[in-house]
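Render this sequence as a predicted structure.
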Amino acid sequence: MPAPVGRLKHASAVRIVEIKRLLKRNSLRLLVFLFILTACLPQVEVSDPNQEADLIQIPATPGEGGLPTPLPTREPYAPGTLVDYTAQTGDTLPALAARFNTTVREILQANPFIPPDATTMPPGMPMKIPIYYRPLWGSPFQILPDPLFINGPAQIGFDVKEFVNQQPGWFKDYSFYIGKRERRGGEIIETIATEYSISPRLLLAVLEYQTGALSQPLPSGDVDLYPLGYRDQFTKGLARQLLWAANTLNNGYYGWRTGQMETIRHVDGRLENPDPWQNAASVALHYYYAQMMPQEAYDYAVSGEGLLRVYTQLFGDPWAGVEPHIPGSLTQPEMSFPFPAGKVWAFTGGPHTGWGEGEPLAALDFAPPSVVGACLISEQPAVAVADGVIARRGDALVVLDLDGDGDERTGWTVFYLHLANDSLPPVGRRLSKGDPIGLPSCEGGRATGTHVHIARKYNGEWIPAGGALPFNLEGWVAANGDQPYQGTLSRAGRTVRACECSDRTSQVQSQP
């Protein structure tokens, strides 16, 4: 039995003709992402995921001889074969079961030391997993570690504006109106990285790889069109392209993280099932480049000569000394409902996007019954779900930092959206659980009625509202529905369902 592949080196012994034959055979793919967008969305400029993109040729960066080093492949396994696997940061049993095409029950039987109620697996823990082979597996070559994908502890101390200003390229002088004001170069990246909680270094590497924005004195094409290569009316202009890129990368990352995405459909129609040993950051990059690159350019981008080479040139070896950002057995601290004690509010939105469109399904919505269906500023405030400090304030939003250090890239944070701007507390204010944090409204993006939207992050990573580590508010535990915004809260045998209608079955009372 071959050992599992972690960060594989280039398999130079594999013949190029064999790789081409395998890639040609893997010519059909299946898309499993469909995002339902309804009541509550931050106002971000991204593309319609159902609109077909134009296929364009993006220049590849060849290795020696004009071809990238051939990527490694895996053998087909007999059904139920026990394979070795080393837990990666953020792994959960449901996601592993989906990736290896098995069940949580079978994984627990093969690893009796894992408790059935386990949340996240301890990084580095050896496991045995029964595998059921799927065809069309992609490469197991890992591009970037997960802790360097998100805007977490690894990004502390990196001044993106200063870094961009020191580069010779044209991007430092590029400006765009974003976040309600004109911003230049590194400030654009900083804004997008903060909003989507995605690494600013990764966004810069993506930008440099595809446009040369940090190294070339002049752009090679029109930056007001489609410089990253994805073409539709909603992504025209470099800043909108970057917003689309951040959203798409998050869709790939959290789709793989949760086990919801099993197949990538390429823009040219090919199908790819990511290698079960892959990590979420690498799959996110596979998913992103599959949206606009034909096969040859895609193969370069996900090889060692592609994005990884550019990232390393800019920031050094990403795999050197990287520390896991999600520990094993992660648990949520105690949290109350985001409305006053003893009050009855409506559970109007089950697990849905925390920010942007699609994944991650990190947020829940609540509304005072008196304003359901209307866009009036509520007289009842939203409140702090736990003790903390206001780490960030934006357009109708605040971030409550529970570890109190004022940095939303570390520890547990709770993101609030759709609060009236005039009611927001200042950055740095310390709140106790139950203190007012703002008045629910329709401000801050698209909303069909007054409500408050809350989502959790840990060390910069959005934590899904349902799943292996669900939202727990006073013992009410969230669960996913069949579609985003659907879902339930359950406690002690009672279940309420999410509904904008604010009927009796959707109402819940906070503890006095």
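Summary. The domain at 344-509 is CATH 2.70.70.10 (Glucose Permease (Domain IIA)). The radius of gyration is 23 Å.
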